[in-house]
Amino acid sequence: MRILFVTSEAFPLIKTGGLADVSGSLPAALKQVKIGKAKADVRILIPAYPAVLEKLENQSQLTTISNLPNIGAVNIILGTMPETGVSVMAIQAPSLYERAGGPYVNENGKDWEDNPIRFGTLSLVAAILSAEDSPLQDWVPDIVHCNDWQTGLTPAYMHFMHKSRPQIKQAKSVLSIHNLAFQGCYSSDWVGRLGLPAESFQIDGLEYYGQLSFLKAGIFYANGLSTVSPTYGKEIQTEAYGFGLQGLLTQRGHEIHGILNGLDTQEWNPATDPYLTHHYDAKKLAGKTKVKADLQASLGLSVNAQTPLLGVVSRLTHQKGLDMLLECAETLIQQHQCQLAVLGSGEKSFEEGFKALASKFPKQVSTTIGYNEQLSHQIMAGCDIFIMPSRFEPCGLNQMYGLRYGTPPVVTNTGGLADSVIDSNEATLADKTATGFVMPTANTYQLLATTSRAISYYQTPETWKSIQQNGMQQNLDWTKSAQSYMQMYQDLLNK
After folding, report:
1. pLDDT value of residue 148
2. Domain assignment present for 279
3. Given Cys at both, which of 2, 175, 177, 227 links 141, Cβ 3.0 to 4.6 Å?
4. Hey, which residues does 368 pair with through a beta bridge?
5. How far apart are CA 24 and CA 44, in angstroms?
């Protein structure tokens, strides 16, 4: 089975968030599983950003695709992913992708004005490669797996290409919704500019409140749909989490596969992590105490093994519930003499709030604004409790990193957090399933109460060790999830 995995980012080539982690890990996991006799032959399709061209191994020019709207021609560069060896096809279009800044925003943090063209081109190239008359005659996919709004036009292009020439065999399309909050909405004049037929701009199509929605296009036209956790698959069919698309998602509810993300357990492994000063595992936790001391020292915090150290690695946004942490942080610090290590960036008010907290409590709070892969690993390992009070969370990976690193998370009962963390109480401690602390609703009171409860357990060493070990012994790799995706692909091909 040939699978074209279409994404706007993939670790370690380029990363802004969890999508990159999934796109870097899932294709490699797919290659290791099979359904019946079907084995996966996976290629990733991604824009050739400077970072991609810099890191992609064994590069060679594969083909050229001409006559594309707005841009003319692009080159397709074939290479391999570092470490995993998964094949990657990078779309080389210097005017679109080779520029300073990030994949979605410029150096000032503003969206690129030509994002519709940039990701419309990614989607169109994927659609062209999906048909049996593709310029790559030696590799035509059976499945085109799209991810989030940046690739949402792919199923639409595929639909209308097939409609205009039904005799040409074409792959089946799948769209994975990683975060429904980001929909890629643009003015209606982009419909024609992107080479889409006027008939597509209607409620039964890609129209969304008078705009063109990349994500709605994918949801409407894809042959199969998935989300990144079972609970999120149900939540997005409700008004509270549907962001205006709940009606369409409910119509297709029976087709939505909620498949919980896994982890790259080689990249995230406290026994071998190159970013850590000491290593440890579930049986030998002593190294974690040493990592904590080194982290406290490097962040300028008081070095004390007994002090509860809380960690945050996150986008600093309202969605992530970090306004609630700002509201109760001083109370936590004063009541429990705990410490807080924050890493992330986002809304300026949040950034300033955490910086002010660090200024007020320099020996108890550290705030690092920006992204730092090394520090993210060190916080995951060196902290005692991981704080993740998201108002909604499609899947989340950080809570799983916390489990893996013996850093029990405090989470909200939503999405993938609900599917991956089991609250610690008398019953779950007794049956050895307790792995963290789950607040029933997202509000400041519950965050304060639940974090305080976690700290009280932390102060009971044997109980705490049991919670740590339960989490660390969870099977968090991609194998089960990859099998579920392969089954979904096979079911689509059998229809």
Report:
1. 98
2. no
3. 2
4. 343
5. 9
Burial group, residue 268, by CB count within 10 angstroms (0-12, 13-18, 19+): buried
Residue among 307, 356, 304 at smallest CA distance from 329: 356
Rounded alpha-carbon distances, angstroms, from residue 242 to 177, 183, 250, 363, 394: 12, 11, 9, 42, 12
Helix (H, G, I), strand (E, B) or coil at 247: helix
Q: For residues 346, 350, 354 and 359, what is the CA-based torsion angle, rounded to 10 degrees? A: 110
CA distance 133 to 167: 11
Q: What backbone torsions phi and psi does residue 310 show, to the nearest 5 degrees? A: -95, 140
Task: Name the phi and psi angles at 407, rounded to 5.
Answer: -120, 85
CA-CA distance, 411 to 415, in Å (whole number)? 10
Residues 49 and 105: their CA atoms lie apart, in Å, by 13
* Distance between CA atoms of residues 281 and 270, nearest Å: 6
- The 3-class secondary structure across 70-120, one letter per residue, is CCEEEEEEEEECCCCCCEEEEEECHHHHCCCCCCCECCCCCECCCHHHHHH
Residue-level pLDDT at 441? 95
Interatomic CA distance for residues 159 and 120, integer angstroms: 15
HSE-CB at 185 with a 13 A cutoff on CA atoms is 13
Query: Do the domain assignments include residue 273?
Result: no
Nearest to 132 by CA among 123, 124, 140: 140
Q: DSSP string spanning 39-61?
A: E-EEEEEEE--HHHHHH-EEEEE
Tokens 């945050």 belong to 312
Distance spanning both ends of the chain, measured CA to CA: 15
Q: Are residues 227 and 345 in the same domain?
A: no
Cβ pair 40, 30 in contact under 8 A: yes
Q: Taking the alpha carbons of 467, 472, 478, 480 in that order, is the dihedral positive or negative? A: negative
Q: Using alpha carbons, list the distances in angstroms from residue 261 to 299, 388, 417, 475.
A: 31, 17, 11, 12
Q: Which two tokens stand for residue 265?
A: 């357990």
Peptide bond into 12 cis (omega under 30): yes
- Under DSSP, the state recorded for 283 is S
Query: Containing domain of residue 200, as a range?
Result: 2-262+479-494
Alpha-carbon span 43 to 138, nearest angstrom: 13
Pairwise CA distance, residues 290 & 292, whole Å: 5
Low-confidence ranges of the chain (pLDDT < 70): none
CA-nearest of 233, 194, 186, 236 to 211 is 186
Backbone angles phi, psi at 231, to 5 degrees: -65, -45
Question: Residue 331 belongs to a domain with what CATH number?
Answer: 3.40.50.2000
Domains in the chain: how many in total?
2
Residue that is written with structure tokens 């405090």 in the block:
410
pLDDT value of residue 17: 84
